[in-house]
Amino acid sequence: MKPQLFTNVKIFDGTGAPTFIGEVLVEGNLICTVAPGNGSIARESYYDVIDGKGMTLMPGLVEAHAHVTYSNMAKFNELGQIPLEEHTLLTLQNVKLMLDSGFTSLYSAASAKFRLEVAIRNAIDSGKFPGPRMRAASPELVATGGLGDERQYHMHHQGFEVIADGTDEVRRTVRTLVREGVDTVKVNISGDPFYGRHGFGHRLSYTEAEVAAAAEEAHMRGAWLSCHARADDSVKLALKYGFRVIYHCDFIEGETYDLLEAKRDSVFLAPAIGAIYTAAYEAEAWGITKEFAESRELFAMIEGCPKVYGELKKRGLRILPGGDYGFAWNPIGTNARDLEHFVNILGFTPAESLMAATKWGGEIMDIPNLGLISDGYLADLLLVDGDPVENIKLLQDRDNIKVVMKDGVYYKRLIKTAGMLEQLNAREAFA
Ligand SMILES: [Zn+2]
């Protein structure tokens, strides 16, 4: 493809700095020049010039708690009813939808089947199917009775879980997962209000020895660790054993704030507020009444967010949008709602929320030149009709996202530009 010169665009560069009118030149898969003002980059006759008509050019979004193998189900055990073949096709559809929705990278928070995300990640990387950059996860390692244990005596149920009890089984499971190619191993260290007896969300579901065993195996083999950790003790264990991504943190207290602060440069957090918010307020149709939501502490978790995450933000922790999208009440593709939740519930400014989803997104993906519009960065770009810094909700409407470019390739292009007909973009090729 010819070099692409975006002109007459408002640039949000991902750092959180104020937007500015400018130009961006993309050559190959890289952003090679960013300059303020119009006409500041010298034109060569072989450039394609894209007039952005004052729209906003920003880095592609990163989803930090993705579940692209979810089927927008109301119950976890619906996932166990999907044969692997159909599940693969469904996931391919989901990753394409994520790309159309402006998410050019996904950090997965767990796969519903053992090799599913590994296969999807590899298929995307090979260029055969459209989708975001992906960090593929394992299924959730779940102790008997923990979050995700769908089994019941005398009845067969299966959800997204891989049950592993005891240090030997935990070790064998992690070894197998890493052998099969996952980037990150997910462990449900904490209980959850949706499982077990009242108050389980405040307790551990794995012993320290089991957590240590999982961590040792993952570290030894060079895989990352993420965890479901609502309980205070679970966050402490995650920190002690070198978990890289800690989800939720709802019920932390006291010295845990200090422990988190001490590891702020190596740890990423994602509250995953999207699923909780919609379950609490918008899921009556699926049987989640106000009373039920109350009994599962959903309102308490939402109300606790400003305190917990306000304090962690002040202490310099990297807190990223990403909200367990993939349930009936928060379907895949609506993930950009989390950016609004960060503003309304967590107290981020819109620019901070966007920065968390782009700059910090590049960091969680562990790709050093991802997440900013800056010289030498990967050309993962969105052209948005309007300014998301002024209206964070704009990104929730896919039609406002006129261009999605990943790695210098157009996957979506809803504007007419000069060189358009010459280019068979990947999205058309796969349509
Ligand atoms: Zn999740």
UniProtKB/TrEMBL annotation:
InterPro entries: Amidohydro-rel, Metal-dep_hydrolase_composite, Metal_Hydrolase, Metallo-dep_Hydrolase
Entry keyword annotation includes Hydrolase: yes
Record bears the keyword Hydrolase: yes
Molecular function terms from GO: hydrolase activity, acting on carbon-nitrogen (but not peptide) bonds
Alphabetical keyword list: Hydrolase
Residue stretches making up the Amidohydrolase-related domain: 56-408
Name assigned to this protein: Imidazolonepropionase-like amidohydrolase
Highest taxon above the source species: Bacteria
Organism this protein belongs to: Paraburkholderia bryophila
